[in-house]
Amino acid sequence: MGFHSILFERPKDGPPSGDVDEPDFFGDLNLDQFVTDVTRGLDEYNLTPFFRTELNGESAVRYRHEVMRDLDNPDVLLPVQAFALVMRKVRACLGDVQKFYYKPQKQWWFLEAASRYCQGMLAFSSQLTDARPPSRGLKAFSVWLKEYVDSEAFISLSRDIDETRSALAGVRYSIHLHGSAVTVLNYNEEGDYSTYVLHLFERFKQGEARDHRVAQKDWPEMNHVEAQILDCVAELNPQPFLLLEAFCGNHADFLDPTIAAFDREIQFYIAYRSYIQLCRDAGLTFSYPIVSAESKAVRCNGTFDLVLAHKLCTDKVYVVCNDFCLDGPERIFVVSGPNNGGKTTFARTFGQLHFLARLGLPVPGRDSHLFLYDRLFAHFEREENTLDMRGKLQDDLMRMHGILKASTASSIILMNEIFSSTTLADALFLCRQIIGEIMERDALCVCVTFIEELARLGPQTVSMVSEINPDRPSVRTFRVRRRPADGRAYALSIAEQYGLTYERIRERLAS
């Protein structure tokens, strides 16, 4: 069984070479914040390109689902985490090699890095074999790793490490201090002088004394005196140090590229698991979506904006979840309702879900069926740019023209409060033309709008309304329900806000 990558099922899928540009929709969907947060503290792995690279097939998505499910098993997760810790220590040792100045010290830390590497690979191979992960990715890697630790190259590396460490461990020497003079001598069965001193003072002991010893920290750095002592020891015992120098030359590239790539790529899963754990601890649900490049019947229950939920869970604030479903000829959500009621959040959630699904990751919510789109487009309201000499209406039109020109029947289009700078009649006319084009193209779409008539354009459109508290119309519930839009709740909310309800007017007239 061959092994290519723990992230990419086939070589043509990835990994990406170099940096990957941030998709245009990232800012509108707050996915730029997501990538920043999920990769925080993991700069050494350079995970950002992985979180920007979308997968292109259903099988590629399932490949990652399998690996992520394996990592839900502690028998697999714990060895993987232990492996990652070993590799961090190996890199730390190799980093010290670059920082140190004295040659024997650099060589020793290189030997230490190789030693930790071999011990870690043997332990990881044994633990992974015992865990028997069923995913295609980890199963193939487990087979490859077993073959690697059984290979002649790895066995030779381990044997040379043991031989070199054994030779260095056999070095014995004495130091004679006289004033500022330091003399290094070969060990010649001299007695332990500390034992003699302790025995000499034993006669004066009158009881248990306080321990005044100070623990000395074993810093890896050496001062010039220690370095000269080490040079003298090497002159007195040349063979072990020649063996150390030969080891460093013969195994300069001991770190296998496949191991290094696995160490980096597995962090993609670990990082996402760590990011969503805060939401899971708060009781929020994640699921592995069924993805399809053919069926546009999409749904998800109990879903939420992942970036917003992560912030709310950090502050221990309750997260409102919503459901959605498109079936049969339905393709377009038309979301209306009062301002600050969760409409934009719903659009972001829809986009985030599909993007995370295309990364092969668990998505917020349960019973999720999502579409494997070819491109995702987002047109969210932006401040007018005075530098391009275009008005806001013209800018909206040009952006939508570019989206419609580039989109296909397999695209997803998210529109949020477009044409708000023009009259209702003009906005209705323009939105009808654009949604008509999307309907003709048969693309999936979420349209957040104040124009409720758009929800009645045809069987492809579905009305979603952000609700308010019926007892307190000014209070938003942040729930977006599937129901016809009638504008009454919105009107009642505005009337309540400005004291224009029937009851308030009667009170003022009576007074």
Automatic annotation (TrEMBL):
Record carries keyword Nuclease: no
InterPro entries, alphabetized: DNA_mismatch_repair_MutS_C, MutS, P-loop_NTPase
Ranges where the DNA mismatch repair proteins mutS family domain occurs: 330-510
Keywords, alphabetical: ATP-binding, DNA-binding, Nucleotide-binding
Keyword Nucleotide-binding in record: yes
Pfam families named among the record's database cross-references: MutS_V
Domain of life: Bacteria
PANTHER family from the UniProt entry: DNA MISMATCH REPAIR PROTEIN MSH1, MITOCHONDRIAL, DNA MISMATCH REPAIR PROTEIN MUTS FAMILY MEMBER
UniProt protein name: MutS-like protein
Phylogenetic classification of the source organism: Bacteria, Pseudomonadati, Pseudomonadota, Betaproteobacteria, Burkholderiales
